[in-house]
Design a protein that fits this description.
The complex is a heterodimer. Chain A is mostly helical. Chain A is built from 19 helices and two strands. Chain A has a two-stranded antiparallel ribbon. In chain A, strand 1 and strand 2 form a beta hairpin. In chain A, helix 1 crosses helix 5 and helix 11 packs antiparallel against helix 12. Chain A is elongated. Chain B is an alpha+beta fold. The longest helix of chain B has 19 residues. The radius of gyration of chain B is 16 Å and the shape is flat. The two termini of chain B are 14 Å apart. Classes of the chains: A mainly alpha, B alpha+beta. At the A-B interface, loops of A face helix 2 of B.
């Protein structure tokens, strides 16, 4: 929504709050969504002519509540369920109480409640992601469908199945017990991280980076950090997505992926890096270390290194060690091997990579084969490196990554023919 | 809202009768059932005899087949159920987490279908 009324800017900010209030009042997600949508449409039409009301938020809440009650009345003859809703609507506080100036402070918690509800563990991860983008992010079903390359009707079904489970199994949109709150916030972090991962290195798209999803994940991560500022891992997640997303402009050039070593650091978004570092600082102040903070700390060392060569590799290796102790994973071990190869030497890194070759999932993971290929090349074992690049290309599903692999493959073949040891050559892009 | 808590057990992992482990678990079951009843959440509950006592019947194309054993031969078998009447799924899940067999089996939480007029 971009227009002269200022509704576009307000939409982003107020949508989740408005939905939260409506879900709390009416207990029905569909009704809340429809009423909020109608209220924004009316705002777009009215504010353009009459100008913005004194308190846009209160105006939106009042209008949306009226729309919701209208809808209930229109459907009143339908079912018992709606009658109950109508009764609830009649019992609402008088609108006068919310027509005061400025945002109501209690609304902040309502936003968290809606986030927690969308990420309820009784819903599948797919449903949690879709609902969070729809209900909290305010994306349309079509936009979400496009982001995940499924048809709008498939996404529509996914959303309506989720909403129907919320209704029929009575998944509450209310503050959970203090005892489960920490776990439930963990589920929200996971969903935001899933959205970011898909945006950062798309598995379904020909594009490598889905900027729309990265934007959404960054916005959600910062929203969550605002809602629970004292949760160290929430801050860690915000730091992580910001620090990685700051490199976005340098990651794909002419349709080919550019690896960290060759990225133009002048293209990195400094203000975004600063925001990430601020979250990381706030996280550390909580003195409760976790995996997101460790990953963010690694990302911060990359983000602040003046050049690739000046990166603090030995500290990065130490951070990967700490991460592995908490969450053993082959992917983390692979990244650690790369850090070791720069801290100690290519052969040391290669030995660690070879040790992972039997691990589950590595055989079909293109990054495992391309990492192995690079380390073989740096160890002057070019024929094997060429073979490893070919294996990587065989399992690669992303077009930008494929372009990069093809280019490296060609480069190594020509190096091999020139008989100059690869380790003595500088790559010319 | 009413939920059925379907308790799936793993016969190999159930403590052997006569052992202190079994006595301790029996105590836990008793305490759990008491607690839901006292909270006013219990509608009813029953344990089932073992899956080896199950018989399954099907009618296909007018022909009845009766077979020995449960509907599906799986590691986890239905061992009993609770029907609870609670506010929402969070409360149902909170109770379900206290059922002793969640440690080795699993509990499926399903809302009952409210038939109109019933």
């Amino acid at each position: 929504m971009r227009d002269g009324s200022g509704v576009g800017e307000i939409f982003r900010d107020r949508w989740p709050r408005l939905i939260s209030v409506l879900v709390r009042d009416f207990g029905d997600l569909d009704l809340a969504e429809e009423a909020a949508q109608e209220a924004f449409l009316e705002a777009a039409a009215r504010w353009g002519e009459d100008g913005q009301p004194r308190s846009p938020e209160a105006w939106l809440v009042t209008t949306a509540r009226r729309k919701a009650i209208d809808r209930i009345r229109r459907n009143k003859l339908a079912t018992e369920h709606l009658k109950t809703l109508a009764d609830a609507a009649e019992r609402l506080p008088a609108t006068a109480s919310i027509d005061e100036d400025g945002p109501t402070p209690e609304l902040v918690d309502e936003q968290l409640v809606v986030l927690l509800g969308c990420c309820h563990p009784a819903l599948s991860h797919e449903a949690q992601v879709a609902l969070t983008l729809r209900i909290v992010g305010g994306l349309s079903t079509e936009q979400i469908a496009r982001a995940f390359l499924v048809s709008p009707s498939t996404m529509g079904r996914r959303l309506s199945r989720a909403k129907s489970k919320i209704r029929s199994a009575r998944i509450p949109f209310s503050a959970p017990d203090q005892s489960t709150l920490v776990t439930r916030i963990g589920a929200v972090r996971h969903v935001i991280y899933l959205i970011f991962s898909e945006g950062h290195a798309s598995t379904v798209s020909t594009q490598l980076v889905r900027g729309d999803l990265c934007d959404e994940a960054v916005w959600l991560a910062e929203l969550l950090a605002k809602l629970v500022p004292d949760e160290a891992e929430v801050r860690g997640l915000a730091a992580l997505v910001l620090l990685i997303d700051a490199r976005r402009a340098s990651r794909v050039i002419d349709g080919a992926e550019v690896l960290l070593a060759d990225q133009d650091r002048a293209l990195w978004d400094r203000p975004v890096i600063e925001r990430g570092l601020a979250h990381l600082g706030a996280a550390h102040a909580q003195r409760s270390l976790g995996p997101f903070q460790l990953q963010a700390a690694i990302a911060s060392l990359h983000a602040t290194a003046p050049t690739f060569e000046e990166t603090d590799w030995s500290t990065i290796v130490g951070l990967y060690d700490a991460l592995l102790r908490r969450e053993p994973s082959s992917v983390v071990a692979l990244n650690r091997a790369v850090a070791v190869s720069y801290a100690t030497g290519a052969e040391a890194g290669l030995a660690l990579v070879e040790a992972l070759s039997e691990d589950e999932g590595m055989a079909n993971y293109p990054y495992f084969h391309s990492t192995r290929a690079e380390l073989l090349a740096r160890s002057d074992r070019l024929p094997e490196a060429v073979n490893a690049f070919e294996t990587a290309m065989g399992s690669c599903t992303n077009e930008a990554q494929m372009q990069h692999l093809k280019r490296r493959h060609r480069c190594l073949i020509s190096c091999h023919h020139s008989e100059i040891p690869y380790s003595e050559m500088r790559e010319t892009p | 809202m009413k939920y059925m808590l379907l308790c799936y057990t793993v016969p190999d992992e159930v403590p052997t009768p006569g052992t202190p482990e079994q006595a301790a678990e029996a105590e836990e079951w008793f305490a759990f059932t008491n607690a839901v009843a006292q909270a006013g959440a219990l509608v009813n509950s029953d344990p089932l005899q073992g899956a080896e006592t199950a018989t399954t019947i099907r009618l296909r194309d007018g022909e009845t087949t009766i077979t020995d054993g449960p509907y599906l031969e799986t590691k986890e078998v239905l061992g009993g159920y609770y029907v609870l009447d609670v506010d929402n799924i969070d409360v149902a899940l909170e109770w379900a987490a206290k059922i002793p067999l969640v440690r080795y089996g699993s509990v499926e939480v399903r809302p009952l279908l409210d038939l109109p007029g019933s």
